[in-house]
Amino acid sequence: MRLLGFIRSAGQSLRKGCSMRATGTVSAILSHKGHEVCSISPDATVFEAIQLMADKNIGALLVMSGEKLMGVLSERDYTRKIALKGRSSRETKVHEILSSPVFSATPGHTVEDCMRLMTTNRVRHLPILDGDKVVGVVSIGDLVNWTISAQNAAIEQLESYIAGL
Asked: pTM of the prediction?
């Protein structure tokens, strides 16, 4: 009987327009994945940046001048601004093609906030700032993995609840 009530309640919530949400903050993601930030100087060559991305198996680098975030350089930037335009990656400096201004989030932003920001602005990497200090980076893949884990945990809890009836 309790199961039927639970199913009815869930069905009513869904009909009222409620949706499942991936809860959690960026801080939790960074605690799990780590705070490592791969960056490059704006005066480095694009070739050096692409080599670093290949070595680290990542799709973007933060462009930093000392502690200051200048922009982001992604594989997409390379493809559209170097390869398709016939420019030389060995002669072009990172500051010539980086993406700026930078879309960023704070450790307190939710996974949902970040997904919305990334989708709206068509970016795949989001620097995480605490004031002006870079404390990490999250990718769209990090957010998707977090969401899948949260959904799996919710499913396991529901299965335990149902099995305990």
From this structure: 0.79
